[in-house]
Amino acid sequence: MLRAILKSAVTDGLIAKNPCQVRGAGRTRSAERPVASVAEVAAAVETVPERYRLAILLPAWCQLRRGEVLGLQRRDVDLLHGTIGIDRAVVRPMDGSTVVGPPKTSAGSRVLAVPANVLPELRAHLERFVEARPDAWLFTSEAGGPMVAVTLDRVWQRARRAIGRGDLHYHDLRHSGLTWAAASGASVAELMRRGGHANPVAALRYQHATEDRDRAIADALASLATGEVARLGDRHRARSRT
User: Fold this and answer.
1) Residue 125 a catalytic site member
2) Exactly one of 88, 125, 197, 205 is catalytic; which is it?
3) Full set of structural domains in the chain with CATH
4) Residue 39's pLDDT is what?
C-alpha cells in the first residue's frame, strides 16, 4: 500500500523517485483455504434444521457467495430447466443495515445449472419454506425480509463443530465446490463463469488442487498406451502367422 501511495506521489510530481523498491514486496499471497470433502458437506447438511439445509448445499454445489445465497428469490429458480439465476446479493455493512444490491462482480449476474443431487432439496425447500409470490426470499428473517448473514454464520458454526471441521468457514463451502469443479476437469473459463469471477486470477487458484485429476489423466493416458501396445502385438502375431 505504501508503495502504491508513493507511486501516486511520483506521478503527481510530489517526489522524484519511489523509495519502495523491494523486489516482490508489492505482492500479496493469500493463505491456503481449507477444502471440505463431499462426505463432510453431506454430513454437515444432516446436522442443521431442514430450513437451512439448502443454504449449505448452494455454496458447495452451485458455488454461490454468501450474499448471493441470501439474495435468492422464488423467481430466480427455474425447476423446469434445473437452473437458478443470480441477479442480486444481500450484504450487511458495518452500520448493521441490510443492503440489497447487484452481485459482487460484473460477472456475478449469471444463470447456473443446479446439480441433480441438489434439485430435490431445492424443490422441497420452495414448497415448505418459501411464499408463493415471485419476489419471496428463499431464506427469510423472523421479520420476513432476507435472512441476515449472522444467522447463517451461526448455523454453519454449529454444523462445522458437529462434523469436527472447526477450520471451515462458510465461504470455504464455495471454495470447496470450485475446487471440486476444477478437479472434475472444468476449464478456467468454466470456473470463471461458475464462480462469477470477472478475471481469471481468482479462478486460477483452484487449478493448483487438481493433483487427483492429473493422476486420473495420467492413468487414462496409460490405458491408451496399453491398449495400443496390445493392438500392435495382435497385428504382429497376425503377420507372423501369415
Assistant:
1) no
2) 197
3) 38-209 (1.10.443.10)
4) 93
